């Protein structure tokens, strides 16, 4: 967890005990101790820690690796990658899967369309969802824009490789014993109501940062020029992307301004109204069920065939169904859709 003074941690715990939300607590603390005293993300992490049952705020020296450190690491992994599976967290941290689930549930997280989100949305989040959905509905009525929208998102693709280990020596000699080792590639994809415009697979160990994402945007621009020239020629790209880092970095925002692309509003913690999460990725995941992928090449072949088999109507349905989703959010006072 981020380092902050012990005094501020006690103040955070006081606000937590009095059922304040992390955002409001952060504002109050910064008003007293200065704008640099605490960040919103750090406040949210400490509130998640408190909800998980870990109320320790002291800087006491510790020996070994206490379980509370594991709790913090679980929260960090979810903050970094909201698509990560609880099984992957358990495997990477070398802890029991049920332990991971228990701590996530205590911290108030649940899986919504394969994305970790707060179990209960804050009042501010509910208002944001309603306000943004109403705004998008009105705009689409006045000036339909969905046929100009390009969706950007990422998804992990997991595959198994066979690894040789050795059994104990017996009278028959030492025999190789195959084991499965899980690996994953990150799929970065951009699509619209007509189909896939561009996608890339990042190699194991490769992660997205602002530099890489800006390079991807330049490659995307060339693909749009080839496949949707009317959008580039008329400067009509409406860009929909995730509201998490590195997509909201200063470098990325500047690159999007340089490209002249409009960025569509999207409320945080809202996979239920994100076209990739509620539509494309769910379909893709279904196609992977029961399929054994054992190499990067297998992943590439499966994706190529999957996208090739989909008709334009498939992609159109995912994009053009958004107004119905927005209206449902408004009708449900901002609550998650089933």
Characterization of this structure:
With about 350 residues, the protein is α/β, with parallel strands linked by helices. It has helices spanning about 5-15, 20-35, 40-50, 65-80, 85-95, 95-105, 125-140, 210-225, 230-235, 250-260, 275-290, 295-310, 310-320, 320-330, and strands at about 110, 115-120, 150-165, 175-190, 195-200, 240, 260-265. The strands form two sheets. Strands 5-4-3-6-7 form a five-stranded mixed β-sheet, with helices on both faces. Strands 1-2 form a two-stranded antiparallel ribbon.
Oligomer kind:
single chain
Average pLDDT confidence is: 85
Instruction: Classify the secondary structure makeup into a structural class.
Output: alpha/beta
* Alpha carbon gap, first and last residue: 33 Å
Task: Please state how the strands of the largest beta sheet are arranged side by side.
Answer: 5-4-3-6-7
**Total number of strands:** 7
Poorly predicted tracts of residues:
61-65, 169-175
Choose one word for the global shape: globular
Counting DSSP H or I runs of 4 or more residues, the number of helices is 14
Radius of gyration: 23 Å
- Topology as H/E string? HHHHHHEEHEEEHHEHEHHHH
